[in-house]
């Protein structure tokens, strides 16, 4: 059975735009029909207190027949292939791939929470998500466009 998923894309080390482009190519290998829709990319200020370069962020949408944990494993394999090291929470990274939405499912497992726990407050997620599907309604019945503020739009720079 096919499920539409939305995945956040982020990188701030080792040529971040190229890291995301390489990740999209890898996503095409796990997407049904090798079709991946990708938002424009944005530059954003890092979260947390760790000194690091700005991020490049976007969102990808594709259909998959992978179960949620299998998709998580596939995304983490892509991150690892591209040199992801998990040392510091909210630290710099070559690539970060997070499952934002898995169809309309709400998932709460030790390794995976969907919808992604912080997506409603993060401009670098909401804006690219709206670029792909402005009419999206989240599993909690919230309209995506109702979450986006003028201030959020001002935080990001499209690249």
Automatic annotation (TrEMBL):
InterPro entries linked: Hppk, Hppk_sf
Signal peptide: none
Name of the protein: 2-amino-4-hydroxy-6-hydroxymethyldihydropteridine pyrophosphokinase
EC number annotated for this UniProt entry: 2.7.6.3
Residues annotated as domain 7,8-dihydro-6-hydroxymethylpterin-pyrophosphokinase: 89-100
Gene Ontology molecular functions: 2-amino-4-hydroxy-6-hydroxymethyldihydropteridine diphosphokinase activity
Known function: Catalyzes the transfer of pyrophosphate from adenosine triphosphate (ATP) to 6-hydroxymethyl-7,8-dihydropterin, an enzymatic step in folate biosynthesis pathway.
Keyword ATP-binding: yes
Coiled coil: none
Keyword Nucleotide-binding set for record: yes
Name of the gene: folK
Pathway: Cofactor biosynthesis; tetrahydrofolate biosynthesis; 2-amino-4-hydroxy-6-hydroxymethyl-7,8-dihydropteridine diphosphate from 7,8-dihydroneopterin triphosphate: step 4/4
């Amino acid at each position: 059975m096919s499920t539409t998923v939305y995945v956040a894309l982020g990188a701030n080390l080792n040529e971040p735009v190229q890291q995301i482009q390489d990740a999209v190519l890898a996503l095409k290998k796990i997407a049904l029909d090798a079709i991946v829709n990708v938002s424009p990319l944005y530059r954003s200020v890092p979260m947390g207190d760790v000194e690091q370069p700005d991020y490049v962020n976007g969102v990808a949408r594709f259909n998959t027949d992978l179960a949620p944990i299998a998709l998580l494993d596939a995304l983490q394999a892509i991150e690892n292939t591209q040199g992801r090291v998990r040392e510091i929470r909210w630290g710099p990274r070559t690539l970060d791939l997070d499952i934002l939405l898995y169809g309309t499912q709400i998932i709460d497992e030790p390794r995976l929470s969907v919808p992604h726990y912080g997506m409603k407050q993060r401009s670098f997620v909401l804006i690219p998500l709206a670029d792909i599907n402005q009419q999206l309604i989240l599993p909690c019945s919230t309209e995506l466009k109702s979450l986006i503020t003028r201030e959020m739009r001002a935080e990001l720079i499209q690249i």
